[in-house]
Amino acid sequence: MNIIFLGPPGAGKGTQAQRICDALNIPQISTGDILRRAIKEQTPTGLKAKSFIDADKLVPDEVVIDIVKERLAQDDCQNGYILDGFPRTVPQAEALATFANMDAVVELDVADEVLVNRLSGRRVCLTCGATYHVNMLNGETKCKCGKDLIQRDDDKPETVLSRLTVYHNQTAPLVEYYEGKGLLHKIDGAQGVEEIYNSILSTLEAIR
Ligand code: AMP
């Protein structure tokens, strides 16, 4: 099955995509991860993408379209995959349709207030990778491993709001685009992680 995961930043797309990929035994293709790796390795694509990512802007369509086209041609994608973070614009979706057929688009639907609260309340430990929400910390500033908890730069409220604006302006039109093609499956992303996972899995099983 070829599946697209759609949803705003903070909706839990990455986490759910990973779990569903494990369950269906297909690869997760995250353009964000591919771009971050390219930046780290200072490849030509990474050099092109860096300034856009640093400014919370979308990387130009032609750059990401080439990345995805190349990735989907690899052997491990021949039995299906989940696209996580692509397409992000209608031109990307139109380009995708010229070289791949999608079976389903899963939209994680979460209200902006919930996302801002989730992301701006998130605290992480850079030493062991644990994640917390301030509501659960009761003023505690240390991780269970004893190290300091910090707020990631891209979880700061002003950054969260600008990423949400990009989503509404450039990516949300894809909901209508895929609805028109009869591929859209909306999932309530305000539920707990387990409930979301079960809803996605049963939706996909019903159309398999
Ligand atoms: P993500 O981890 O999916 O939030 O992606 C991190 C950043 O990579 C985004 O804020 C964009 O700058 C860039 N990016 C990832 N996927 C795409 C895409 N499909 N189109 C354009 N830019 C992208």
What does this structure look like?
The mean pLDDT is 95. The strands form two sheets. This protein has a five-stranded parallel sheet with strand order 2-3-1-4-8, with helices on both faces. Helix content is 51%, strand content 15%. It has ten helices and eight strands. The longest helix is centred in the C-terminal third of the chain and has 15 residues, at 157-171. The chain is globular, with a radius of gyration of 17 Å. It has helices spanning 13-24, 31-40, 44-54, 61-72, 90-99, 112-120, 134-137, 157-171, 173-180, 193-207; strands at residues 2-6, 28-30, 81-84, 104-109, 122-125, 131-133, 149-150, 184-188. By secondary structure, the protein is α/β, with parallel strands linked by helices. α4 runs parallel beside α5 (90-99).
